[in-house]
Amino acid sequence: MKRTFSRPMKRVVVKLGSSQIADRQFKPKIRQLSALAKQVKALRGQGVEVTFVSSGAIVLGMGLLEENQRPTDLAALQARAAIGQAALMRLWAQVLKKVGLKCAQVLLTWDDFDNHNRFLNARHTMEAILKEGVVPIINENDTTSTEEIKFGDNDKLSALVASLIHADLLVILSDVQGLYDTNQKVFEQVKDITSEIEGVAGETQNIHIARGGMKAKLEAVKIATHARITCVITAGDIKGVLVRILEGEKIGTLFMEREGKLLTGDDQHEFIRSHFKNG
Ligand code: GLU
Question: What is 11-278's CATH topology?
């Protein structure tokens, strides 16, 4: 039995944590990213637009500096992000070029969601990039903003971006198959994120590279589902993962969108603003 979605999934945001971009030696996972690029190409043929929210700047920066341990000093991490961001974009440009696609770098901070003009500018720019058939690659601007370095490896950013561009689906790819219950079985579908569900979510086990863990992902899912965006959490190394999710295959954990009217205009901005800070 396949999943059926409440509406056609035409606009998709795919979030990749640092563990999906680089291996334990902080070297790029080119094969995995090339596979995703191929799927983006295939989906485009079906009229599906994909936007990536990509972490990985810090780990690639560490790789370039030949480090084997993550610094603890915030400015040092921000410097790694600045060093690695260029490598991150080269990586995306390289894998997308192989399938005849181009990418655009979009760096956002929380202030961009808070300020109405900047929010609208970000939305208009995103619409124009997608209209050109170019794949947006979004990251936090780690030079001026430190929310995701401290907290969630772009989980929350991905939910805000999905809401900003009125995405239909948010796919969070990481190194777990989905949300596990207490018997280590993956939930196939979650309607409400209850305190019981939150209770089974832990911090990341892969502290070497990944940040945030399931708790941060559930926070992101809460924001996105409230904005009426369906979410899937699953592993990035599953063969054909994006195409198969969109075909309705029961991969990972599906979080159903909340019922109710879709927020638009000022209401939507207010909703996003209220979630732009932690806490
Ligand atoms: N935006 C950061 C990055 O792309 C966050 C991840 C982290 O804290 O390692 O590297």
Answer: Carbamate kinase (3.40.1160)
